[in-house]
Amino acid sequence: MIDTVRKTIEQVQTGRRTLGDVGKTIAGSTGATVLVLLLMFPVYWIITASFSQGAGLMSSEGLFADPSTYNLDAYRWVLFESNFVFEDGEVGKPGALFNSLIVVFVTVSVSLSVIIPGAYALSRRKFAGREKVLYGYVLFTQVGAGLSIATLVALYALFVNLGLSNNLLVLGLFYAAGAIPFNTWLLKTFMDNIPVSYEEAAIVDGASQWQVIREVILPLAKPGIAVVLIFTFLAGWNEFIIAQTLLQPENYTLSVELYALVDDYETPWTEFAAFAILFALPVAIIYFAAQNYVESGLSFGGMEG
Known about the structure:
The protein has helices at 2-13, 19-50, 73-80, 96-124, 130-150, 152-161, 168-192, 196-204, 209-220, 222-237, 241-246, 254-260, 269-289, 291-300. The chain is mostly helical. Helix 2 packs across helix 13 (269-289).
């Protein structure tokens, strides 16, 4: 920091930078810092609320709870008494966490098994109807979510008539079907940036088509696959409307179980805050663990902001 200030002063003294340029830089940095603080404030507030005593998000004296009352009671309740891990905290009865993991596993595994070969085929192969398939994928990426909500009643009636309304595996398949179009298009766009010459060189060296895919395409496509993995994970982990409509209490996922804590008269807000933080924690861990891959994948996939 000191070196930066010293360097800036030297640049102003030598005429390489003007005071106006320095002022713009300071104003921009200050504005960005204020924006980040505003965006992170709700996160900070909900974290402090989860450690507070009682059921309120605020103390009687202000917005924040009294730090002297901070404790882990809310987290103990979520982990050992609520339906987060085990149903009513009873070991042996899988709770909402297990239900969510089942849905996510089905969503991710089915999605990737279709997305990866589909993206490769659309990126590298020419076949009859290829453009129509691409146009169809674009269409579903734009209207898929809207159709899911608009046809919710019909979807519920269909699943009830087929006896599939309370099935976690079917719910995972439904999420996978919704995630495939967009993520296939995204990974296909990423694979378009992998030079064909790499494959040709491998084939010249005697590699089979499967070896080319396994040893050339997949390693180079890791950033794109990481992005797709996170997006499909989020599709199964965060979705609420369809899950609430189709599932019964014994099969509630974490998003629905979190909403079930809300009561018009006595909502346990500190427990709600702790539940929400633990619910969001896996997403944050996965993103930060794959941050470099994600940034690279979004950049090459044409989604850089």
